[in-house]
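Sharing a chain and its predicted structure for anyone who wants a worked example. Both blocks are below, sequence first, tokens second.
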Amino acid sequence: MTPLDIYRIFLCREAAANEAQIPCEQTPRNAFYLEHILKQFLGARVIHMVRDPRDVVLSQKRKWKRHFLGASNIPLTEAFRSWVNYHPLTISQLWRASAKAVALYRDHPRVRTVAFEEMLAAPEATVRGICEFVGTRFEEQMLSVRQVGSSHEEDRPDQRGIDPSRSGNWETGGLSDTEIFLCETITAKPMDDLYDYATNGNRPNPLMLILSVLLFPVKLGAAFFLNLPRMDSVGDALRRRLR
């Protein structure tokens, strides 16, 4: 039995345990392995959720706070790792690499890209389209999601529904002009060519820009060390994320 066979069994077992027929897997780094996924899982459908990179940077900047916003089950060591992982250059490069990796499959019949902002603006129409794509029936309950998991505010598990205010938070504060400048510098081409996200041309604070650049190798080295146990192949992981 191969590792892939074991993984198939695991997916089916988890689906059955949750009284579901279709296994779903949402590991973000899957974006870098679409070639293998589409080849090995012939019935698989891939939904690529893309989000404005500046909102992604803001979310990752605040991710360490999840422990204090309702996810107390997250260990403090994991909160620290999230804090170390954050740097606008690192997060922007990961967004860029992911966007470029998925762009190779934009016309693949089993891959669909859905904008996060589109989901928030027209949730029912978007979810209906996804259901049609994957071949399942739309149900109203699919829109009744718990409002948890945000890095911006406390969890509200008693409230349900898709919250449109989750979009565009970077425009109302949380990121400095320097962070926005660095993000747009790295992601400008895929933002424009692939997803029609407009840059706003923020100018950085010169001193903060220098400080951020000097701090980058320090945080990158620390993040590499803390994430090393999560990498099966360091060389392959770096190659895919630095494209």
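Comments welcome. The chain is about 50% helix and 5% strand.
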